[in-house]
Every structure is written in C-alpha cells, then in structure tokens.
Design goal:
about 375 residues; 5-stranded parallel beta sheet; globular; 5 strands; alpha/beta; single chain
Length: about 375
C-alpha cells in the first residue's frame, strides 16, 4: 500500500479536471433583491456525492444505501439510495431553485418534468476498459455507469421525452442547469490498488479529456449553463485517514487532515471556446473547508470532525478492511448525525451537505447570467 507521505496529491489533479477561470472566485452572499435566473430543470451527472437512487436500482441487495440507517434523518424509514443520512447537496440546490428533488434516471415510474439525476454511486469519468487495461478492478462499481454511459442516458432521455427537434432541445436546455461531478473515483481506485504516483499521474490527460469532452457535448446539445464541481479534500475523509496512516505529525494539517492529499491546483478556461455559455466551477474543496474550519461554531462536535458517525473501529470509527461498514449488521450509528461531518467514513452527513450547499449556492448560482 502507498504511504501517505508518498501519496500523490489527489486534489491537485481533480481541481485541474476542468479549469474554469484564471483566478479563484470567492463566494459572495446573494442580496434579497438580486434577481435569480429562472431555471426550470437540473441535469445532474456524477457519483455517490450526487446519486439519488440510480445505483440501488441496479443491484439493490448489494448496496447498503438501499437500507437503513441510510436516509434516516430526512426520509426516516424509507431509504432512497442516497449515500448519506439524509439530503445531498444537489437536493438543497434544487430546493433553492424552487424545484422538486431530482428523481434518478433508472426509476422509470416517476416524473422528470424538472430534470433528471443520472449520477451513479462508485462510477468513474473513464470507461471500464481503461481500468481493465491497467489491472485496476473497479470492485465497488458492479456494472459501472461511467460518464459516457450517463451522457448516453441523457441523450436517450432528450430524444424520447423532451425534444421534438434539435432546435426544440436547445430551447428547453437554455432554461436548465447541467451539473458534472465526477473523477474522484478514477484516482481512488488506482491508489487503493497500490498504483505508483508516477503511474497515476499518467491518467490525468485521460480523465481531464473525458470531462472536458462531456462539457463540450452537453453545450453542443443546447445547454448554456454548465457547472463542473471540484473534489472534496480526500485527506479529511476517514477512509483515507484510516488507509494511509502516518507516524509523522507533520503529515497532518491543523485540522488533522493528511496534507499530501489536500492541495489545490490552478483553474483554466473553457469559456473562450463557448462564449455564449456559462461554464462555472463549483469549488467543493473550499466549500468543505469552510465547514470544517467553522465546525465548532456550526454545532459540530470538535472531537468527531474526522470520525464516521456510522461505523466502527480504529481512530476514525472506520474499518479500513471494509468488512464492518455502515449498513452492515451490527455496525453502530451515532445518536447525533447532525454533529458529525462524515456519515459513513466516505460520504457526508446531511448537515454538512446543507452547509456546503449554502456556500455553493451563494458562489455558483450568483454567477449565472440571466440575459440569455
């Protein structure tokens, strides 16, 4: 297994996936009088950060998000497939836009009048053949639905349900937001298989290319508002903290996160290629750190900021062997998820998703132009 001191900086790579502007944009609060663009639909692509139920419809028996305690805080006795104790960031964004919660694409008995969620937990930006060629088993994604598959679902949906013609598609997509959130699993799978820094670095061009191509494709289909998210600070996540311990105190920052996994790279521009479109970077990294650095004042338990609420074992309440994970028989759940940052060692609690979404809404939605 790769040591934490040698681990390749995941967040530098992931933040270069789509380089949206030449400088980092700090969030600003929306004033009450500031007009909000009329958005009629959201189309979400991604992985478990955004999946509202696609993965469990593929193999419901295999995935713990199909059963309690997942969803217990908001959905009570009816888990939906969200990898949290309740709502996700995309849910809060939809509510802020006065839209219903997005239904998963694989639920064929529901409404898609206000958008569709194509995200699938454990999915990747790259296709399966890329990992197979490098002997990297994508073991957490039994029937992986990578970004290209999700884009094909999107086109099928448009052709069968929404558009009568290309012009009609463009007209309807102009009143929507497309959100792309993917790429993290591509690096995680390789790192957890012990791939070297040098080898993982060679994947950058392919992953960046897949996401940039997806941005181009949705814009060419008619979208004019595309949001591409960054990654969460992996070094603050219990699964990484448990898997890559370091005896050197200097390997950790002031919040106890692994430094080697938490730095940001630069952002560049796609805007000149599509001057008519808003291509916006949603800074998940900064949003998460804004919560972590204010954790105590926001009501989070200071001693539990890096511990999983639902889990057992070790310093971070997480079983690094992945045998006693959240949802498995006998694995305990903390009595106060709203005071924890990590829900299951890999995903966030509803309370964190709520606070992060406030940051993202103020920053991201405020940069959408309403003149088109």
């Amino acid at each position: 297994m790769v040591s934490s001191a040698a681990l390749f900086n995941i967040n530098i790579i992931l933040s270069t996936i789509i380089k949206m502007s030449s400088v980092f944009l700090l969030p600003r609060a929306l004033s009450v009088s500031e007009p909000r663009c009329p958005i009629e639909a959201i189309y979400q692509f991604g992985d478990s950060i955004s999946d509202t139920g696609n993965q469990i419809r593929d193999h419901p028996v295999l995935y713990y998000a199909a059963r309690l305690p997942y969803g217990q805080t908001y959905f009570h006795d009816k888990p939906t497939g969200r990898w949290s104790d309740g709502l996700l960031m995309i849910d809060y964004i939809a509510m802020d836009l006065k839209l219903p919660l997005l239904n998963p694409y694989l639920d064929k008995n529901t409404s898609f009048n206000n958008g569709v969620n194509f995200a699938v937990a454990a999915s990747t930006a790259l296709d399966d053949w890329f990992f197979a060629a490098r002997n990297i088993p994508v073991k957490w994604a039994n029937n992986n639905a990578p970004l290209k598959v999700q884009l094909n679902w999107f086109k099928t949906y448009l052709n069968s349900s929404v558009c009568q013609s290309n012009t009609d598609c463009a007209r309807k997509l102009r009143r929507s937001i497309v959100i792309l959130e993917t790429g993290s699993n591509d690096y995680s799978y390789a790192l957890f298989q012990g791939k070297s820094i040098q080898e993982v670095q060679t994947y950058i061009r392919d992953i960046v290319g897949a996401i940039v191509d997806a941005v181009r494709e949705v814009i060419r289909l008619g979208a004019i508002r595309v949001v591409v998210t960054g990654t969460l600070p992996e070094g603050c996540c219990p699964i990484f903290l448990a898997a890559f311990p370091n005896s050197d105190p200097k390997a950790y920052d002031d919040k106890g996160c692994l430094r080697d996994l938490n730095e940001k790279g630069a952002l560049a521009k796609l805007r000149p290629e599509f001057p008519h479109a808003d291509i916006i970077y949603a800074d998940y990294y900064a949003a998460f750190l804004s919560v972590l650095r204010r954790a105590e004042s926001l009501g989070f338990e200071p001693r539990s900021t890096l511990k999983a609420c639902c889990g057992t074992g070790g310093l971070y309440n997480f079983d690094k062997n992945l045998t006693k994970v959240c949802g498995a028989p006998g694995v305990p759940v903390c009595p106060n998820p709203d005071q924890h940052i990590s829900w299951d060692g890999t995903h966030l609690t509803q309370n964190v998703n709520c606070h992060m979404s406030e940051f993202l809404i103020n920053d991201t939605l405020s940069r959408i132009r309403c003149t088109q």
